[in-house]
Structure formats: C-alpha cells, structure tokens
Amino acid sequence: MNTVPFYRSDVPLDSNDLATCQKVLDTLCSEAKIERDSEEWRRIGVIAIQLVQQGVQEHGDLLAMVRTARGILHPDGDNEIAPYEMGSEAFIKRLDGSANPYAPDSVEAKEWEHGFLDAHRVSGLS
C-alpha cells in the first residue's frame, strides 16, 4: 500500500493555532512598540505561522522562538537569555549539542536542549 507522508504543515491552522499566533504577535509587538500593519509586524506574524505549521504548539515555546528569530529583547530589561532561547540560538548558529553550558541533568540543561531540538525540528534539517 502506498502512503503519502503526513506533515503538520500540510494541515490548515485551526482556531487555536491562529489564537496562539495572534497572542504571540500581540505580545511581541506591544513589548517592542511595533506598529500594526508595519513590515516588522508582518514578519513576526509570518514567522509565528510558519513555526506553528512546523509543529511548535506551546505558546511559551513559540514566543521564545519568534523573539529569538527577530532579536526582540525581554521587556523587563533583563536581557539575560533564557536557557530555551540559548539552545535555539545555538542551533541557529550551527553549534552542536556539546555547546550546552549548563550542568548535566539540571533543569536549565534540559530547557537548553529542548530549545536546541525544537529549532532543529522546525528547520527541517536532518
């Protein structure tokens, strides 16, 4: 029997997916004072939709990945990068898993690895 591979990106976004994308778009645009209908506003929306289509479902993960992709700093002035975001950035910079700076088996190490693996998964690279 011939089967066609199923990819999350083949499925249209549902209302929950769109609500998550909208919440991320609203949050980041409010934080960074980005005007509605601007080019940057559109870029953030497109990135959020593409990441959801590629399987990123959790709001926090989506927010962190879009924030990292667009270089938007944290609004509280604490620009220390969270472990998840550091892992995502490590993959984007083409580092390998050994770049994890946290103690093995620590919560931070697991968060870093989660960010690294999510960035790898949504990149489509094997």
Task: Provide structural commentary.
With 126 residues, the chain is mostly helical. The protein folds into 2 domains: 14-75; 81-126, no CATH class. Helix content is 57%, strand content 0%. It contains 5 helices and no strands. It has helices at residues 15-32, 39-53, 59-70, 83-92, 107-123. Helix 1 runs antiparallel to helix 2, helix 1 packs across helix 3 (59-70) and helix 4 packs parallel to helix 5. The longest helix is centred in the N-terminal third of the chain and has 18 residues, at 15-32. It is globular. The two termini are 26 Å apart.
Helix content: 55-70%
Count of beta strands: 0
Fraction of residues in β-strands: under 5%
Main β-sheet description? none
Mean pLDDT: 81
The whole-angstrom Rg is 16 Å
* N-to-C series of helices and strands: HHHHH
